[in-house]
């Protein structure tokens, strides 16, 4: 995020990050598996042959209590002709039309009531909210018959975040300043960010074992042109909101692809370790951290999409000889097979966090290298020479006291631009020029 802000700091007036959308789901875990349901039926004295009648009676209680709550609060009861109608949109329209900001909005009935919680939309304004307590109050509104239905049983809801959207808004001083760069950002994001880039944005290293699909698309909506990347069932998107706000948004539907430092639910007194993130609200703080990190990585990638400097000017800085410490080093040849492969390896994001060593590059550049020590020494010497060239051009830097290297900000900008230019079709260039 800092790289994007530094690049456009003259035109940015502020930033704000927080929850844009959280869809909560309450589950009675005791009733979600066979043994738990059998135990419940035994406690309330219902035989299996009578379960159908019991379920209908409980449903009747819920419907009657919900209608009574709507009548008491003077809120409408609306019948939906199809269960496919998006209930959230109906509830939002009624809330906006009646000026409802909290409390019961309406009661919706339809041929199949599948999830009342979709009619509620809660916003997180601070991380210290005691979510179970807050959501239990919501549950009593959504199911006012809970106490009567489960009298004598300690059945509490397990609250989970079915879907979350974490947004970062970057406010520009005017719509004109954002409009000057946004078209180039959109073109670069949709044409340049490949699958391994998107995986890196979401904190995942490119893995050949991953058999899923990474989809990127863009659409022109009333709010603005939106670019969206979808891997693992989660997504990253960017769009201009209100003309002067650049919004970057991470949506998490499958939190299990991320990690949370926590104890095991089976051993609450045990030690903490990195485990799959849960949908439960207990990991909501970690989901916020992960989402912000995704937004930061994406914004840094957007910062690498140069919106002002011509590619020829950018390439000219490294396509000529340089002198460093009295020694002359050759120019880079980005369109030669040798240098092109080197630049692509360094710009693909694999070494973005931990950097790379001579051996790392040797393994990627010379996969068929011999196991002979003399051969390995010759390869190491070749890689060292190429590292010196990159350092002389200011594209990489050496970590103090270590034999590891990192790509510089200048190097990331130049290598990203040069590598992506290799994959742009003539038709795309003509369209852009037009």
What does this entry look like structurally?
By secondary structure, the protein is of the alpha+beta class. The chain has three domains: 2-19 and 164-265 and 281-303, no CATH class; 30-122 and 139-154, no CATH class; 311-433, Arc Repressor Mutant, subunit A, CATH 1.10.10. Helix content is 41%, strand content 20%. The chain is built from 15 helices and 14 strands. The strands form five sheets. It has a six-stranded antiparallel beta sheet. A hairpin with a 2-residue loop joins strand 11 and strand 12. Helix 11 crosses helix 14. The longest helix is centred in the first third of the chain and has 22 residues, at 51-72. The radius of gyration is 28 Å and the shape is elongated. The two termini are 32 Å apart. Mean pLDDT is 80; it is low at 112-127.
Would you list the SSEs in sequence order as H and E? Answer: HEHHEHEHHEHHEEEEEEHHEEHHHEEHH
Give the domain tally: 3
Major sheet characteristics = 6 strands, antiparallel
Return residue spans where pLDDT drops below 50 for at least 5 consecutive residues. Answer: 112-127
Mean pLDDT: 80
Radius of gyration over all CA atoms, rounded: 28 Å
Indicate the proportion of strand residues. 15-25%
Helix fraction bin = 40-55%
Strands of the biggest beta sheet: in what spatial order? Answer: 1-4-8-7-6-5
| Computed structural class | alpha+beta
Tell me, what's the shape?
Answer: elongated
- State the helix count: 15
Q: Total strand count, please? A: 14
End-to-end Cα distance? 32 Å
């Amino acid at each position: 995020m800092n790289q994007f802000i530094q690049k456009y700091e003259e035109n940015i007036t502020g930033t704000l990050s927080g929850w844009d959308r959280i869809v909560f789901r309450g589950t009675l875990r005791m009733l979600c598996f066979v043994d738990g349901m059998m135990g419940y039926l035994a406690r309330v004295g219902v035989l299996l042959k009578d379960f159908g009648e019991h379920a209908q009676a409980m449903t009747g209680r819920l419907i009657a209590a919900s209608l009574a709550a709507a009548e008491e609060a003077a809120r409408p009861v609306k019948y939906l002709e199809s269960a496919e109608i998006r209930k959230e949109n109906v509830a939002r329209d009624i809330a906006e039309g009646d000026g409802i900001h909290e409390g019961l909005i309406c009661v919706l009935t339809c041929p199949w009531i599948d999830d009342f919680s979709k009619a509620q939309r809660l916003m997180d304004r601070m991380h210290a909210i005691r979510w179970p307590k807050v959501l239990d109050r919501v549950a009593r509104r959504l199911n006012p018959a809970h106490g009567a239905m489960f009298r004598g049983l300690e059945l509490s809801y397990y609250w989970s975040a079915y879907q979350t959207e974490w947004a970062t808004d970057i406010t520009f001083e005017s719509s004109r300043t954002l409009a000057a760069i946004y078209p180039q950002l959109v073109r670069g994001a949709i044409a340049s960010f490949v699958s391994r880039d998107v995986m890196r944005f979401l904190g995942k290293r490119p893995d050949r074992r991953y058999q899923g699909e990474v989809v990127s698309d863009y659409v022109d909506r009333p709010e603005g042109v939106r670019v969206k990347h979808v891997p693992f069932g989660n997504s990253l998107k960017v769009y201009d909101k209100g003309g002067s706000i650049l919004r970057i948004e991470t949506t998490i539907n499958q939190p299990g692809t991320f990690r949370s430092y926590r104890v095991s639910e089976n051993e609450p007194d045990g030690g903490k370790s990195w485990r799959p993130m849960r949908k439960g609200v207990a990991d909501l703080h970690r989901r916020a951290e992960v989402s912000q990190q995704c937004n930061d990585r994406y914004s840094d990638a957007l910062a690498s999409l140069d919106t002002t400097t011509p590619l020829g000017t950018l390439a000219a800085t490294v396509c000529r000889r340089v002198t460093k410490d009295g020694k002359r080093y050759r120019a880079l040849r980005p369109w030669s097979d040798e240098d092109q492969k080197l630049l692509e390896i360094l710009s693909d994001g694999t070494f973005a966090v931990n950097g790379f060593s001579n051996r790392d590059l040797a393994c990627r550049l010379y996969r068929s290298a011999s196991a002979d020590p003399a051969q390995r020494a010759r390869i190491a010497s070749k890689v060292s020479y190429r590292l010196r060239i990159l350092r002389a051009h200011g594209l990489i830097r050496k970590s103090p006291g270590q034999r590891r290297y990192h790509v510089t900000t200048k190097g990331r900008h130049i290598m990203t631009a040069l590598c992506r230019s290799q994959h742009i079709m003539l038709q795309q260039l003509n369209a852009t020029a037009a």
